Amino acid sequence: MEGFNKTLLSKLILMGITDQPSIQKLLFTFVLFFYLFDLCGNLTIVSLVIRDPTLQSPMYFLLGNLSFVDMLISSVTVPKMIAGLLGDNAITVKNCITQMYFFQTLGCTEGVLLAVMGYDRYVAICHPLRYISKMGRSTCILLVFVSWFTGSTTSLVNAIMTAQLPFCNMKRIKHFFCDTKPLIKLACKDIQVNQVTMTLVSVFLSIGTFSLTVLSYVYIITHILKLRSSKSGSKIFSTCSSHLTIVILFYGTAMCTYLGPFTEASLEKDRIAALLFTIITPAMNPLIYTLRNKEVMNSVRKLIK
């Protein structure tokens, strides 16, 4: 127990996005720009959903929650990433595990939210007459609560198991923020149980929620194929295209990171995928929804006027 308490006081070093000093200033500008773009874009969507009476449907309620999660995901990782680019790469083990927990909680919550949004689209398209009864306000609030509860509880398993590991002092984490895979590689004991647990949790969440999302779209596509009017089918698909684009971006990067092997080579690839997951994707989500959604675009125009 004494050794464990001692490790809580030790510091780790985040290696950052790159170890090449020549491009640090360029990366700082790039990261700061996308972070501010992410905050402004997602905060705008949250504000529109709260203030605009035309955006009070279940779909926009879920979209507002998704934007809120995207803001938090970036805010959990990017400030420390910026500090690292300015030279402050040190972080305590306690703070590292805390960052890891909140990042994974938000990532898991977003995965469940995307599955819920897929179900929302399925009900709206395949059962339009029962949409209001199936996706009422109380149901939406319950589904959002389930998303947060699932994300926080499953992430807590990894956090508790990681906190029990003894870490060697002043080790370098091959990442720009604290994530499970690169962090547990620094442990001074066998981590096979942690690796198996992390893989099982990742498979349960990523494959499970992705399968539910795919199932929703299988029913939607089947419904579209049964329609006699091709114009109606294209209109329906257009309403789903924004969500489908975000699903591909989210699960593509998440699965590359968390379902990959625990090797040194994979850790390098994970940094690239994580850069997309933590900065690019959250910043692109508002852009995807505003450009492809007439209601949101009209609301933005009213806000500007």
TrEMBL record:
GO terms for molecular function: G protein-coupled receptor activity; olfactory receptor activity. The chain crosses the membrane at residues 26-50, 62-81, 101-119, 140-161, 203-224, 236-260, 272-291. Gene3D superfamilies: Rhodopsin 7-helix transmembrane proteins. It is a multi-pass membrane protein. InterPro entries: GPCR_Rhodpsn, GPCR_Rhodpsn_7TM, Olfact_rcpt, Olfactory_GPCR. PROSITE patterns: G_PROTEIN_RECEP_F1_1, G_PROTEIN_RECEP_F1_2. It is found in: Cell membrane. It comes from the Eukaryota. Keywords: Cell membrane, G-protein coupled receptor, Membrane, Olfaction, Receptor, Sensory transduction, Transducer, Transmembrane, Transmembrane helix. SUPFAM superfamilies: Family A G protein-coupled receptor-like. Residues 41-289 form the G-protein coupled receptors family 1 profile domain. GO terms for cellular component: plasma membrane. Belongs to the G-protein coupled receptor 1 family. This is Olfactory receptor.
